[in-house]
Amino acid sequence: MSHLLDDAIASEPLGDGRHRVQVTADWHTANQTPNGGYILALLLNAVLQESKHPDALTIAITYFRPAVAGSAEIAVREVRVGRRVSTYDAVLTQGGKEVAHAVVSTHDWDAAGTFAHTPHAVPEAPRPEDCADVSALVPAGMVPILDRYSYRAPSVPGWLTGTPSGVTESLCWIRAADERPVDALLAGAMTDAFPPVTAEIGHLASATIQLTVHFRRRPEPGTVWALGHVVTRHVVAGYHDEDVELWDEQGRLLAQSRQLAILADG
């Protein structure tokens, strides 16, 4: 079965680490530019096709300029192949201009260590089926990226009802609209798929400058829903941070991210 994300990040290998891709407008944000998490998935998919290790461990992306719908090319370079961790960089270009640059570390979860210390548990939240259907509150087609996912929240966010809370923190379940199982590609995209919690202080439009994702496990087969804990701690001079944790329904941490973004209206 073909899924929306896989169709949107499909690449044509050209040799020597180069991949031709088609950027689609189906993942545009309210800014009418491609979502940063979608661009992350494009780059990560190309890297994983070149990697000597099978699994993503980290990805750090700097966005130079917005991509546009249409043809683009990704160039992947092998930086170092290690016994446990390998490193690559990847550059997305359009029209002869660099759009985004990623540094990616890969490894093999089957060969990872076993020691764990996890004192910070998953935040308490009702199961998705017991939450409010937030997706139903946004008209279809208004913001394309939001149509690619389904959202369930313990309560309706205040900004959606015209009563912003002033608290830049949220809990929200998320899944692909076509119920694609979660893997590193989707988890990475999901970390940037939540409406910015700065909406609770009157600023909805935001553009990512830098995004780093740490993948913390290989999701179990059949994982569809992920719980996102989203926090913005500081807004300074129109720039804001955003930390996201993604947890599965069994309370296991899937991924963590941090980004720096600029308020489009601030």
TrEMBL record:
Domain Acyl-CoA thioesterase-like N-terminal HotDog, chain residue ranges per copy: 25-106
Pfam families: 4HBT_3, 4HBT_3C
Superkingdom, natural source: Bacteria
Residue span(s) of domain Acyl-CoA thioesterase-like C-terminal: 128-262
Designated name of the protein: Acyl-CoA thioesterase
Cited SUPFAM superfamilies: Thioesterase/thiol ester dehydrase-isomerase
Organism in which the protein naturally occurs: Nocardioides ginsengisoli
InterPro entries: ACOT8-like_C, Acyl-CoA_hotdog, HotDog_dom_sf, Sec_Metab_Biosynth-Assoc, TesB_ACOT8-like_N
